[in-house]
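Customer escalation, tier 2.

The customer says the design service returned an amino acid string that "doesn't look like it belongs to this structure." They asked us to rerun it and document both sides in this ticket. The original structure tokens are below, unchanged.
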């Protein structure tokens, strides 16, 4: 009989590209992972992986087995959800992956409320802007608080359910003593010294696409994905930035915010889970807390405008 742990290792190696990377993510030694994959190869009687430069790739047999593995793991997930639904109680643990820009105004309030409502539930939170949905498909996390910019195509992988939380616009942020007229047209930013995220990021791509649609290509003097760094440059009077509204602390001083006119740039914040036919009470409770915090944070306090 196939060992489910070995099948999961095969899936993880295929997703991460190497045995070393897979071992690190599973907190195992590369030797231990190699040993288990060798046992799986012996069980199947055929090679499942082959060298591919500095990484490894699936053989035809490996790809076929991975297809079945996905269905097996999905069936196990469904079984766990069905039993949890019968119990009808929120579980003891859950893991959330969240974007750094959502922590202050959504994640922290949500987890605070959740701790009061369900004190037995311990939520581990991974704050990362890298490949959250991949971690969801690998079973590393239970819920992802992710984003999708409206200017970019939807790349949600199959088998993932997405629950919208909030439509979050990007605001023009300038130093308080250099406030721009409210609202400001995107085309006007061509005359500003800009601090923007790298073009390879989702936010950077969305800004670049929107600016091109407005008739210009932005030239950033400062390039960083760190929103705190962008705001520091703005406060110093060195740059203008485009920052998601939920990423700006309402108590911030020394900055002015203004909406974009004509070519808005917005991101959809969502909670994503692995698809199951039966809702899991634990992830349902976590998503409900995130949704409440997102709505309350969106209406709580006006942002600085001078």
């Amino acid at each position: 009989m196939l060992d489910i742990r070995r099948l999961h290792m095969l899936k993880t190696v295929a997703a991460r590209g190497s045995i070393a990377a897979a071992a690190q993510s599973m907190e195992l030694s590369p030797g231990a992972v190699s040993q288990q994959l060798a046992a799986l190869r012996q069980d199947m009687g055929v090679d499942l992986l082959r060298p591919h430069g500095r990484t490894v790739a699936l053989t035809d047999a490996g790809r076929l087995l991975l297809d079945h593995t996905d269905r097996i793991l999905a069936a196990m997930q469904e079984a766990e959800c069905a039993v949890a639904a019968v119990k009808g109680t929120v579980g003891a643990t859950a893991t959330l992956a969240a974007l750094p820009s959502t922590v202050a105004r959504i994640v922290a309030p949500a987890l605070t409320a959740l701790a009061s409502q369900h004190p037995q539930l311990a939520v581990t939170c991974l704050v990362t802007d890298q490949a959250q949905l991949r971690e969801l498909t690998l079973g590393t996390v239970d819920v992802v608080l992710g984003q999708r910019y409206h200017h970019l195509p939807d790349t949600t992988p199959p088998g993932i359910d997405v629950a919208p939380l909030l439509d979050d616009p990007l605001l023009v942020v300038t130093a308080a003593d250099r406030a721009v007229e409210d609202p400001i047209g995107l085309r006007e930013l061509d005359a500003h010294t800009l601090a923007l995220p790298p073009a390879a990021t989702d936010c950077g791509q969305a800004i670049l696409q929107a600016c091109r649609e407005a008739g210009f290509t932005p030239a950033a003097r400062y390039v960083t994905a760190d929103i705190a760094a962008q705001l520091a440059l703005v406060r110093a009077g060195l740059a203008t930035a485009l920052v998601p509204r939920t990423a700006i602390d309402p108590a911030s001083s020394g900055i002015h915010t203004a909406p974009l006119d004509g070519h808005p740039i917005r991101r959809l914040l969502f909670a994503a889970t692995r698809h199951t036919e039966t809702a899991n009470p634990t992830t349902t409770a976590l998503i409900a807390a995130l949704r409440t915090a997102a709505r309350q944070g969106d209406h709580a306090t006006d942002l600085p405008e001078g």
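Tier 2 assessment: The sequence is consistent with the input. The two ends are 67 Å apart (CA to CA). The first strand starts at residue 49 and ends at 52. Sent an explanation to the customer and offered a walkthrough call.
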